[in-house]
From TrEMBL:
CDD domains attached to this UniProt entry: CLECT
SUPFAM superfamilies attached to this UniProt entry: C-type lectin-like
Source organism (scientific name): Potamilus streckersoni
Protein name: Farnesoic acid O-methyl transferase domain-containing protein
Start and end residues of each Farnesoic acid O-methyl transferase domain: 63-131
Pfam families the UniProt entry points to: Methyltransf_FA (PF12248)
Domain of life: Eukaryota
């Protein structure tokens, strides 16, 4: 991507400074430098927009099995927030988890519209005690 007289390439591979310099040399380039606020803002906006997932849609069954976004081709790594909507005949369970497959470790379960749409709750694992609740009726 170009900005003024410079051309930048964002590489998402983690590397040390020395490794990054070698990587750039292999492609006939030099490690980028940011020389002014305009370049800084341009790169920040580019990275922010490149990491924005929009208009993703998927359906899950009525099976109370968590479906992981990454398995559905959606990567939210590095995002500080996520916005979603739910259409359900009953309650919806949303898990925020760091450990795939282990619902009792590093997981928050959010139940939306549970108990005949009378309340929503937050738990710190699947089916654990409620940490907080909001009553709707």
């Amino acid at each position: 991507m170009a900005y003024n007289e410079k051309c930048f390439k964002i590489v998402e591979t983690e590397a040390s400074w020395a490794e990054a310099v070698i990587y750039c040399k292999e492609y006939g380039a030099t490690l980028g430098t940011i020389d002014n606020v305009g370049e800084q803002n341009f790169l920040e906006n580019y990275i922010r927009s490149a990491n924005t997932v929009t208009n993703q849609s998927f359906n899950t069954g009525d099976d109370y099995v968590y479906h992981y976004l990454r398995d559905l081709g959606i990567d939210i790594t590095g995002h500080s927030s996520i916005t979603f909507s739910v259409q359900a005949c009953n309650d919806a369970h949303v898990a925020l988890s760091q450990t795939k497959g282990n619902d009792n470790v590093d997981t928050y379960e959010i139940v939306i519209g549970g108990w005949a749409d009378s309340q929503s709750v937050i738990r710190d694992c699947k089916q654990c005690d409620n940490k907080d609740e909001a009553h709707h009726r």
